[in-house]
TrEMBL record:
GO cellular component, as recorded: cytosol
Name used for this protein in its record: LysR family transcriptional regulator
UniProt KW keywords: DNA-binding, Transcription, Transcription regulation
Signal peptide (UniProt feature, chain positions): none
Organism: Fundicoccus ignavus
Domain HTH lysR-type: 1-60
InterPro entries: HTH-type_LysR_regulators, LysR_HTH_N, LysR_subst-bd, WH-like_DNA-bd_sf, WH_DNA-bd_sf
An annotated Gene Ontology molecular function: DNA-binding transcription factor activity
Pfam families: HTH_1 (PF00126), LysR_substrate (PF03466)
Family, as annotated: Belongs to the LysR transcriptional regulatory family.
CDD domains per UniProt: PBP2_LTTR_substrate
Domain of life (superkingdom): Bacteria
Amino acid sequence: MDISQLRYFVAIVDNDFNLSATAQKLHISQPALSRFILNFENTEGIDLFHRQNGRLKNLTPVGELLYAKGLELVEEHEGMMRNIRELSSFYGGTIRIGVPPLILSLLFSDVMLQLMTKNPNIKFVMIEKGAFELEKQLMLGQVDIAILLKPNSLNNSIFSEIHLHHDRLMSYMHIDHPLAKKDQLTWPDFRQEKVIMFDESFMIHHLLNTKFNTHNSHPRHAIYSSSWDFFIEAIKTNDLVTILPRPVMDFIRGDIIVERPIENTINWDVVAAFSKKNSYTTLETYVLDSLNDYFNNGQDIIAIDDKLE
């Protein structure tokens, strides 16, 4: 049995022993698929399937063993072919990375610029959405790597994560705002305030709502947006406050905006999330290793051809 025939066998099992559906997906005729099964069983002198009224019902013990081993071989072969295709194109390829705009501005501008400029043969497709929306796209396979926040709702038996950055949320306001007089804020302090915050496509939106619910401290007026730089301009009016990750302060110019810590605040833990697989492409491994080295080991990005040689 060659790899193509093994793929046929695995596909039959994955399609609940429905030969018609399997043949359609494999783009071969159903009679050809039936002949393949019978020829293999007759040649080897074994039965792979239990049958009922001429139809395939389930696997025999021999069939179960072949399926378990065959599935591993098919996945290994597909991974090998992906790597070969990448290597034959000078370590090129395409990878889709989802990054929330705030994280891209605060943490990812330099690392993405290095990845792109040092690897001209790789196409980096950037998807800028809120972490809550990117989580859905990762589950649907619409991105290869999603930069998310912890906690999230990903199933850790299906997805893996690499921790990249730890920080915390802080409150920001005009220096003349009444809350600026306090050294530290509490969640009930926001109850009577006008707060500008991220919309529901962002994970921070949901983390803040959970805190407000817990402390019965929902702001009397909330304004929603997806643009954090708009937040900074808005709080210059001396009427609004916002809650953002601490690194935002490094990007604020002038001295009219002040930062105040919040008691029992929310951690801002940034992770790179990706699907668990038996094997990863050379490009996927390179990008994940590069992100880990950059954020956790303080290393600049090395071009893929230099790293693999």
